[in-house]
Design a protein that fits this description.
The chain has 325 residues and is α/β, with parallel strands linked by helices. The chain folds into two domains: 200 residues, Rossmann fold (3-Layer(aba) Sandwich), CATH 3.40.50; 98 residues, Alpha-Beta Complex (UDP-galactose 4-epimerase, domain 1). It is 40% helix and 18% strand. It is built from ten helices and 14 strands. The strands form four sheets. The protein has a seven-stranded parallel β-sheet, with helices on both faces. α1 links the parallel β1 and β2. α4 packs parallel to α5.
């Protein structure tokens, strides 16, 4: 049993992470400002501390009151589109806030971190599938803020070799619990699967952002990872740093990509609704193809996704959104 802090634990992936840790017997404290998270998403078995990573007093109080074996850091803003419209908001929360968290933790002798990063750090790839050592050229302020936070962890370890971390670069997190009891709820919602499901439920227009990419059908290609598999990757990474120490970076995906049109077609198949699809201009900051090279995480962590075929992803999300839209 470990004492774990989950920042952003009232959010989508964070809430799944909290449940998984509790189910395996860990004690969990959730730290979340609830601006975009949902208090009712936090498992009753966890302790919820409402606070903000931008407030050093909140962090100082947290670390005075609790001792942790590790921190899983999910408290970040996540929209490529929003980051392009308001880069200062993203820099403040994702870079300054994360730096505050890590500095306060290390000063309280908490030195094991799992960081929620993103494939957006790679930008428009020059090699697909994308390996972890691919050049980092973010195409959006969101990707830039995640890369800066990765570098912060590198700096901390360079100055203190007892700092251990694993950076997990998510490709497209998606899906819901298989029974539809937990799922994805963002405001604003920018993710393709919930947006397509909303169109199916309402039989309303679904927008395809960009149909002139250099892909097989002109729409973006993405690697989709089910949230249950993603959470398992965190547990494997946590066990790795607690057992061996060190600094690691892993892509979390499947190594297979689907186009936006294929995703829309799968939502139509699962829902049974032939909702209208309209083609609109590209969104700023979207890369044409993001597919993970997953050899490293499979070899080093024995990561083996169980739920990340597109049909299972969409079926689970359909169950959730049908109850909650």
């Amino acid at each position: 049993m470990k004492n774990i802090l989950v920042t952003g634990g009232a959010g989508y992936i964070g809430s799944f992470m909290v449940k998984a840790l509790l189910d395996r017997g860990d004690q969990v404290v959730v730290f979340d400002n609830l601006k975009r998270g949902h208090e009712n998403a936090v498992d009753d078995r966890a302790v919820l501390v409402v606070g903000d990573i931008l407030n050093k007093n909140d962090l100082n109080s947290l670390f005075k009151n609790y001792d942790f074996d590790a921190i899983l850091h999910f408290a970040g803003l996540i929209s490529v589109e929003e980051s392009s419209k308001d880069p200062e908001l993203y820099y403040e929360n994702n870079v300054v806030g994360s730096s505050n968290l890590f500095d306060e933790a290390v000063s309280s002798n908490i030195k094991n971190f799992i960081f929620s990063s993103t494939a957006a750090v790679y930008g428009n790839p020059i090699e697909v599938p994308i390996p972890e050592d691919h050049p980092k050229n973010p195409a959006s302020p969101y990707g830039e803020t995640k890369l800066k936070t990765e570098l912060k962890l590198e700096e901390l370890r360079a100055s203190d070799s007892s700092v251990n971390y694993a950076i997990l670069r998510y490709f497209n997190a998606c899906g819901a619990s298989l029974d539809g009891s937990m799922g994805e709820s963002h405001n604003p919602e920018t993710h393709i699967i919930p947006l397509a499901i909303k169109s199916a439920i309402n039989n309303s227009e679904f927008k395809l952002f960009g149909t002139d990419y250099d892909t097989k059908d002109g729409t973006c290609i993405r690697d989709y990872i089910h949230v249950l598999d993603l959470v398992n990757a965190h547990i494997l990474a946590l066990e790795k740093i607690l057992a061996d120490g060190g600094a690691y970076c892993y892509n979390v995906g499947t190594g297979k990509g689907f186009t936006n049109k294929e995703v829309a077609e799968m939502v139509k198949k699962v829902s049974g609704v032939d909702f209208p699809v309209i083609e609109v201009e590209r969104r700023v900051g979207d890369s044409s193809e993001l597919v993970a090279d997953v050899k490293k995480i499979k070899e080093e962590l024995k990561f083996d996704p169980q739920y990340s075929d597109l049909q299972t992803i969409v079926e689970s999300a359909w169950k959730w959104h049908n109850k909650n839209l």
